[in-house]
């Protein structure tokens, strides 16, 4: 049984980073993140919930129009490892279907909710053609509101060419994640990093 590859980061010769967001689109917070990326001409990847795509298609369409990428993060954000292979397939299929319905494009990568996976899920992801995308700065735990400084400092320690950085634009109060992004995006650009989508980053992978 063939399994999908898992990426925490991408081996690349270029000074590129992928900033990713989970759990949107969110009508309150996502537009505020978009403003930062627009200001600096940077691109991000959004691992959206299928259910939020149904609720907030207008926010999703704006994300797409501004050049950001969509990733599959399941339809209803379950603990995937506790589902049958058929249920896992259905979660990915429904999420992909609503993303295509709203923005007319197929997502090309998957991030498991809670970063939980098992062999069945890796096989299902392979069937969909999705690499599985984790991240290098998981210790920020930005979803848990540990303080902006903590989020910024943990992320800074994980910044190198090819890093995949994870934040949340949905699920509760995202003010600390937003404040961290407002600090990090200009800082990374100042350091000479280009902030690209996950597909652009994966395309530069060296072996
Ligand atoms: Zn999530």
TrEMBL record:
Short name of any one Pfam family annotated for the protein: Polysacc_deac_1
Domain of life, per lineage: Bacteria
Gene3D superfamilies registered for this protein in UniProt: Glycoside hydrolase/deacetylase (3.20.20.370)
Name the record gives this protein: Polysaccharide deacetylase family protein
SUPFAM superfamilies (UniProt xref): Glycoside hydrolase/deacetylase
Organism: Paenibacillus lignilyticus
Limits of the NodB homology domain: 15-196
InterPro entries (alphabetical): Glyco_hydro/deAcase_b/a-brl, NODB_dom, Polysacc_deacetylase_ArnD
